[in-house]
## 1
Amino acid sequence: MVQMDSAQPNILGFLLANTIGASSANATSSHNATSTSTSPASASAASFFSLLFSPALFEYAKWMLMGSLIPYLQQIGTWLYEKALSSMFVSASFTEGDAAYDWMMTWLAKHPKWRRARQVEVTTRHGCNDGARAVPDDDDPHAEAGVTKFSYIPCVSSTQWMFFRGHWMSVCRSKDNTGWYGKMEETLRVRILSWDQRVLTALLHDARAHYDADKHSTIHIYAADGDNEWRSVGKRPKRPLRSIVLAPGVKEDVLADAREFLASKEWYNDRGIPFRRGYLLYGAPGSGKTSLIQSLAGELGLNVYIITLSRAGMDDATLCQLISNLPDQSIAIMEDIDAAFTQGINRESADPAKPASAAAPPRSPQGEAGGSRVTLSGLLNAIDGVGAQEGRILFATTNKYHSLDPALCRPGRMDKHIEFRLASRYQARELFLAFYEPPRKREREEREKEKEREGQEKWERDSGFEEKLVDVSPPSELDELAEQFATAIPERECSMATLQGYLMQYKTSPRDAALNAAAWAMEQREEQKRRAAGA
Ligand SMILES: Nc1ncnc2c1ncn2[C@@H]1O[C@H](COP(=O)(O)OP(=O)(O)OP(=O)(O)O)[C@@H](O)[C@H]1O
């Protein structure tokens, strides 16, 4: 469509005035000459035709037509250009939030091009905000523990050229307004100079391999963002299963069950049973529920998706959307599943010594939560309704098992219920050994391999499971100390987290840990009595 600018009416007026002036002059002279033979009607018809065929109007119409054609010509030009490009290039676009986008960003961040590029975006989001870009600057000689690492990625709105397997390739990151409450969405556009689409497939394989390079030592964690899209919130080092101390056989049983589930897709399909599995981990705070899930995710090689039911803005529709958007073969975690349906309850009120039902708060008739707008029926539907994702494992945790609705706990939603209790003497002993025991020969070899990989050492540093600092040599002495420690710890009175906290005070001296354990346990008991009296 052609838009007239303000000058055009003036030109039109000028042309008309000239034409009409000329016509009227002609008409006047002819009128004078033949005033007796020409009628006024035929004179105005003549002036109209002379106006219509006047060269000025013709010129004007010509320019108008050409002006209106210009946008179409531009469009045709762009279309031809795009056609020419698309016939020479293989193009792909990646949208932020999609896993493929994360692969590409990791691949780009690791590309040697950015080490020489003069226009880059610098990111320090190392393993906390965006796993995709969490690439350590391997060449940085100053990169040491505790120093924030950085990496380079392409700038937004600039096109960068590079080579991929001998093909010229352009990369352009852009941020576009989605029009949804001003939400900006980032897109990465890639063009490879090639006729063959297999180059793009190769690029994607490469990018995914880079992204998964540290999969053997880390797990990827995802959480919902403000727009209820799954976003990577970073990576965590895998936690070895042997570092979790539970009653004999418990963790091995859960692991075997989950492994069997993942391998039985066909079995489920053949019988028309929804291919989903739910585990309910319940019991005392600090007894290893979260740690076990993290460790199992590592063992199974699955990514973890955290669903926070009590999050502001969470309602039935949002929950349903999140669960149906879970990728196949993933672990979803709903921590404190009771929290969405309880009002005014804090963690302290969940005294494991009391029957949980005594602590259960009244629930509103619809089961609606105080802060959250998730209803019980919404949660039940999200877990196993029509839209619920197949192929996922759901882990739910709670400290208030008996306050949960039976419908939530039934098989099909929560297939296995695993109780976590306060530490037994057996657990205290095993925790002590796991904390100080030098790894046995086979384990040592295994650990050597693990240590080569990224993440393991970090986990050991953070958790205090460091073998090199321990001042005990003969294993028999360690056994004796472990026994002494376990005897000093009262059965089922302290959480494993509390015991771990105590041992952390004696990272390098198990003798002192064992020696002071009895006095510490007494203090703990007194402290608990004081708290109970105060409550
Ligand atoms: N059974 C256990 N074996 C080894 N370590 C444990 C165990 N239980 C707890 N811990 C340690 O205690 C800390 C807290 O554990 P975790 O968060 O897994 O407990 P939780 O049961 O999920 O607690 P909460 O119910 O409060 O969320 C972790 O650092 C973990 O290493």
## 2
Amino acid sequence: MTDDVLVVHGGTPLSGQIRVRGAKNLVSKAMVATLLGDEPSRLFDVPRIRDVEVVRGLLELHGVKVSDGVEDGELVFDPANVESASTDEINVHAGSSRIPILFCGPLLHRLGHAFIPDLGGCHIGPRPIDFHIQALRQFGAVVDKTPEGMHLTAPTGLHGTKFELPYPSVGATEQVLLTAVLAEGVTELRNAAVEPEIIDLICILQKMGAIIKVHTDRVIEVQGVARLSGYTHRPIPDRIEAASWAAAALATRGRVEVLGAEQADMMTFLNVFRSVGGAYEVTDTRPPRVGSPGQEGGIRFWHPGGELRAVALETDVHPGFMTDWQQPLVVALTQARGLSIVHETVYEQRLGYTEALNKMGATIQVYRDCLGGTPCRFGRRNFKHSAVIAGPAKLHAADLVIPDLRAGFSHLIAALAAEGTSRVYGVDLINRGYEDFEGKLSALGAHVERP
Ligand SMILES: CC(=O)N[C@H]1[C@@H](OP(=O)(O)OP(=O)(O)OC[C@H]2O[C@@H](n3ccc(=O)[nH]c3=O)[C@H](O)[C@@H]2O)O[C@H](CO)[C@@H](O)[C@@H]1O
Ligand SMILES: C=C(OP(=O)(O)O)C(=O)O
């Protein structure tokens, strides 16, 4: 742990330009989808993050040849020789990411069996996989949970089914999509998640030859096909990373242009950002004309001076305010005048990181009640899932230990906004979802160093 520490000299506004590439929460799934094709696939703008390494490792273990393409960030996947891998080899990746659960359908289609290691991901609630397992069983999979991981077979193949999600889970929706596309017959999924990353995954599957209809009211219908080809795809940019840098600009009273950020995927965040008192400008996103270098677009975020305003917000499924935007934004809310209220309705335990902010001088109280909005699933279950943030607070330096990905980035923002020198331990965790965050911090003029 001692060499996994970043020394942050706070108090300098972040200023400059950085670029975001393909979304962590799409790219990893796009990589899994390559298993479904009988031809190579090509994915652009793949960020160098830990989750991508984990999925690449798992694909390679299963015989997919992964190679670099011509462009920086381009990967080519050849699934011609998909084969079984040993449980020991697969278990090397146990606990490292949530994506392995999405290998179930594709491996069952390609091999007739699958082994899934224990999942990782952020510790922000119990994160059960009951919807995944129920759906897979309905498709015809036999699921056997053992102490070493999960074994699956499909003795009579996978067949289309009707399934209604108790909650619009992103992962379970992707599980159904990745299984239904090659299943025999029609699948109807009700109460599906419709996050932009899911729509982009549907675009990829459609490019491969899938027939997927997105109806109104969260209903998705998939008509299974006998084979899928490869795809060529440029993924949607990472809207969580973009919002994280926006929050960092606001908390440090700085100005950051996030090249690649897409307005359409961030509308809800932009509304809140403006309500708090942040300013932004969507920069030119027109595609370059043939023969001209063109201008890469993005969104410029800045603190316009004066005081920030408290807001009340509630995290929700798309098109609501993303839960993954919550932690970075709360740091900026510690600087807003008045009482801000944040009601976390997606995860039971995503407010633990506020203790560290309080240690730095913030005043944040967490409550078990559903504050400021509609009662949610957690209100009667005794989870501290609402926060009241009193501001503005003068943040001071502290020694911090990063608990998870987004909380980790929020600790970093707090240290940058605070006066004095903080030591942030466990920063390598941030590499799971933020490409070259240290390089980007330096590009934005942050004073950070490895001891
Ligand atoms: C790799 C990835 O894309 N991660 C994202 C994905 O996570 P992930 O796909 O894991 O999140 P889900 O949308 O599935 O989870 C939402 C809620 O549903 C619950 N649930 C989910 C599945 C299940 O079988 N049973 C169940 O009860 C979860 O505990 C949680 O309370 O969507 C989340 C919600 O936008 C984001 O925060 C994560 O960044
Ligand atoms: C919760 C997150 O990711 P994961 O599902 O990979 O843990 C996140 O990206 O904020």
